[in-house]
């Protein structure tokens, strides 16, 4: 999979969560081709401005459609596949496991990171395929949401998790929360591990795990079970 990122802060993607562990290995193994681009490289005026005051007044600044469109066209031209253009914003579809799995079916994603009050709506209307939010709260820029999306999607690239873990066997794969996990030391501070897990009785252990998943989901996230809160 190829992922292009359009941002005003390319340095935010260096030396961070996309440069360690599973995602780093997926990039080294050529499973994930991450390309980060500076939107300001496509500003044309002598102040290299990428934003301006909102028509109709209001606080803050808005990112210019002409600069964004030039940046997008330049990046789209770098690969045969035009890619699915995703704008990260609080107005988007809220990212969940099923949307992550859907986005992971694309061979190329182009993620657009907003700053300030956001982007000119004409860019969204004419250049963006999907608007995606990571949740109902405001962050300072689209960079962190883009990293969350890249990390979540990259885990579904075949081979990215190695053969030790499969995305099918984890939270949300079947809409339930994960069961509690325990490891050595079996005894600590008088805090015990559920006996069943030390029994070696696999059928009973699987049954216990499934019961725990259902109970936790019912208690903490009844919405996931479709039950009204
Ligand atoms: C956001 C979110 C988000 C809004 C204004 C960046 C900020 C600033 N993006 N999910 N929640 N974006 O808060 O995706 O431009």
Report the average pLDDT across residues: 95
Give the termini separation.
38 Å
Strand content: 15-25%
Large-scale geometry? elongated
Structure, described:
The chain has 229 residues and is α/β, with parallel strands linked by helices. 28% of the residues lie in helices and 16% in strands. It is built from six helices and seven strands. β1, α1 and β2 (33-38) form a beta-alpha-beta unit. α2 (65-76) packs parallel to α4. The model has no long low-confidence stretch (mean pLDDT 95). The structure holds ligand 4FV.
Summarize the structure in short.
This protein is of the alpha/beta class and 229 residues long. It is built from six helices and seven strands, in the order βαβββαβαβαβαα.
Task: Sum up the structure in keywords.
6 helices, single chain, two-stranded antiparallel sheet, five-stranded parallel sheet, 229 residues, alpha/beta, binds ligand 4FV
Give me the secondary-structure topology.
Blueprint: E1 2-7, H1 21-28, E2 33-38, E3 51-52, E4 62-63, H2 65-76, E5 84-94, H3 97-103, E6 108-113, H4 121-127, E7 130-133, H5 143-154, H6 202-220
């Amino acid at each position: 999979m190829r992922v292009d990122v359009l941002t005003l802060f390319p340095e935010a993607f260096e030396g961070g969560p996309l440069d360690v562990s599973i995602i780093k290995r997926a990039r080294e193994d050529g499973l994930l081709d991450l390309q980060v681009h500076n939107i300001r490289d496509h500003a044309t005026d002598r102040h290299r401005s990428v934003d301006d005051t909102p028509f109709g007044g209001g606080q803050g600044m808005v990112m210019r459609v002409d600069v964004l469109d030039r940046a997008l066209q330049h990046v789209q031209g770098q690969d045969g596949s035009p890619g699915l253009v995703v704008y990260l914003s609080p107005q988007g579809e809220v990212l969940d496991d099923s949307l992550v799995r859907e986005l992971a079916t694309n061979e190329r994603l182009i993620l657009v990171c907003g700053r300030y009050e956001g982007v000119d709506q004409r860019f969204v209307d004419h250049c963006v395929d999907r608007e995606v939010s990571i949740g109902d709260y405001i962050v300072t820029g689209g960079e962190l949401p883009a990293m969350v999306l890249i990390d979540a999607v990259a885990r579904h690239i075949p081979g990215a998790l190695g053969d030790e873990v499969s995305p099918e066997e984890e939270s949300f794969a079947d809409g339930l929360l994960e069961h509690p996990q325990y490891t050595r030391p079996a005894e600590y501070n008088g805090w015990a591990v559920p006996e069943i897990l030390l029994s070696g009785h696999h059928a009973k252990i699987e049954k216990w795990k499934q019961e725990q998943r259902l109970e936790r989901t019912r208690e903490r996230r009844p919405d996931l079970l479709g039950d009204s809160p």
